[in-house]
Amino acid sequence: AAELARVAADRAAGQLAPPAPVRLDAVVPAPERVLPDPGGDFTLTPDAALRVDPAGRDVADQLAGWLRPATGFPLPVTETADPAEGRLTLTLSPTGAATPTHDTRAAGTPAGEARAAGTPAGDAQDGDARDGDGDDDALGDEGYRLDVTTAGVRITATTPAGLFHGAQTVRQLLPAAVESTTPVAERWVMPGGTIVDRPRFPYRGAMLDVARHFFGVRDVLRVVDHLARYKLNHLHLHLTDDQGWRIAVDSWPRLAEVGGATEVGGGPGGWYTRDDYRRIVAYAARRHVTVVPEIDLPGHTNAALVAYPELAPGKTAPPPYTGTEVGFSYVDPADERTYAFVADVLGEVAALTPGPWLHLGGDEAFKVPAESYRAFVARAQALVAATGKTVVGWHQLAPAEHAAGRVLQWWGTNGDDPDTAEAVRRGARLILSPGNHAYLDMKYAPDTPIGHDWAGLIDVRRAYEWDPGTHVRGVPAEAVLGVEAPLWTESVTTLAEVEYMFFPRLPAVAELGWSPRETHDWSRFRSRVAAHGPRWATAGITFHPSPEIPWP
Ligand code: TNX
């Protein structure tokens, strides 16, 4: 806490150096291709307007909303087709037009792997290195192309999500003062050149445990903003655990009313009404973030058992739990009432959730014998399928039978995991959250005031130095859906503490999920991320001033 206060005070005292001009390759996560044009710098002036296709309107409105407070410029958004009308243009094009005039990609990149630039900006080479598979020009569902010239800035994408990611890049290419909530006298210069960018993996996420400590809607919305900055597109909400049940369920009202009234340490807890949850989902959707709700079953259910003792194996209510042990509770897998409960809860949560995923938990059900665990999971997976959603679960689900499309979230610390590899052979895909790299509840260093250390200490380099495509033995990159950085909150109680655990590790994991492997380079990453410190400070975001990062 003292460290947090000191960081905040240092930043407030303006001890950071004045901003250096942003470089085109300073973007986090690293773009697929970067082609700087030093003669093409663009300066945003008070008369600038944004011009957009109607379908991209909402992204343009958001971009203008990010730029107005610090610039003090009106930045009107227009939908006219007349190019004279706006110097910031957002275009939705069905083909994407991804090919830059000059290709920065290293010649000789093997066909098939040739998607990625690999060549850092500055080493740009001319020449046509296309591999001829016809795929190169596709920006895909989330890609974008950004052109910055003295005359203006253009973002091109095939989807609003692509435009949105491009808009986040624009934000990062303006001076750090753009994060100010009040007008700043600044030359709003953006570096000239072209970026062509799209993600390596389709699933890039973070998890917030709102069960151990409850976080209200405002905090969650702010977390969504943090994800969106780094092009993460999934927010996994761990909605239920021993210490609290955080989502209203009409058919079982005591879950939230009784089960939601506790949290770790004895605080008042809390829970989301259906409207609260809808607000979170809608806010996230506007930022192209999909909410993945988790109902943790059959273990981690003490709060549910307090509310409905009939679900408990002994049919008596346990006392409410506000400690931090795991693995002691479970719903009775031998009672049909349990499956009615599971079906009702999953049905209601699915109905409130526009995204395709329902997370079943499945971790640490230590008291449930293996055979009844597998039988329970098989039924629960079928109940998810009946809602029309796709099952996600912690990798403990692996031994249970395959369910169409199911996704396992792997949180191991040793990539030698035959059970998970076998589940993948049977058709599962993986989200990678290795405990010793991606767990944001781990301490950075021995003196980190909050957090765990069971998976080791994780400073920025450790969060960054692994490859999702090769991490689990026997799991090919094609079976990897993506990455997720979970934040468990046994010791995390405020938004500032969430941010402290997120930054700078969240951008590290985001880069592993987004950027082509060829761009992976610790020394470049650490200097790119360093430039974000002043941004966070200006935006009032708390972060860990890691000694591994050369902060300006
Ligand atoms: C393990 S990781 C858990 C959580 C704890 C976490 C603390 C996982 C699926 N389960 O219940 O909060 O460790 O790091």
Automatic annotation (TrEMBL):
All copies of domain Glycoside hydrolase family 20 catalytic, residue ranges? 201-516
Q: Where is the composition biased (Low complexity)?
A: 106-124
Annotated EC: 3.2.1.52
- Give the first-level EC class, as a single word: hydrolase
Region listing for Disordered, in residue ranges = 91-140
**Quick check: keyword Hydrolase in the entry?**
yes
Quote the catalytic activity from the record: Hydrolysis of terminal non-reducing N-acetyl-D-hexosamine residues in N-acetyl-beta-D-hexosaminides
Entry coiled-coil feature ranges: none
Segments forming domain Beta-hexosaminidase bacterial type N-terminal: 26-197
Q: Does the keyword Nucleus apply?
A: no
Per the UniProt record, which residue ranges are transmembrane?
Answer: none
Supply the alphabetized keyword list. Glycosidase, Hydrolase
Family, according to the entry, reads as follows:
Belongs to the glycosyl hydrolase 20 family.
Designated name of the protein: beta-N-acetylhexosaminidase
Q: According to the entry, what is the taxonomic lineage of the organism? A: Bacteria, Bacillati, Actinomycetota, Actinomycetes, Micromonosporales
- State the covered range within the intact protein: 107 to 658 of 688
